Amino acid sequence: MILVTVVNKGIYDLSPIIFEFKDKIQEHIIVYDIDYKEKKLAKRLKNSIIKINEKYNISNKISFIEVDEDKKVDMVNIQKKLSKLKPNRLYLNATNSDISLVVVLSGYILNQGGKVIAYDKGDNSYNIIDKNGFENYYIKDSMNLDDFLIFMDYNLISEEDKEYIISNRESLFFLFQNFQDMFIIRTLLHNKQLNRIKTKYRAYYEHIQKLNLINNPVCFGILFEKFVYLKLIQFNFDDIKIGAIVEFNNEYSNEFDILAIKDNHIYTIECKIGGNINIKPNDVIYKSDSLLEHFGYDSKSIIINMQKDNQPLNFKAKILKRARSSNIEVYNEYKFNTSDFHNLVMEFFGVKSRIFLLGGIDLEMIEIKNILDKKGLKYKNKNLSWGAKLSSYGLNHKYEFVGIELIKDIDLDNISYIDIDHHNELQDRDSSISQIANLLNIKLNRYQKLVSLNDSGYIPAMIDFGATIEEIEDIRKKDRYYQGVTSRDEELAEESISQMQKKGDIYIIKSKSDKFSPIIDELYGKNVIIYRDNELNYYGRNIKRLVKNYQDLIDKAEAYYGGNYGFFGIAKDKFSKNEIYNIRDNIIKILQKKSN
Question: Which Gene3D superfamilies does the protein's record reference (predicted)?
Answer without folding.
Answer: 3.40.1350.10
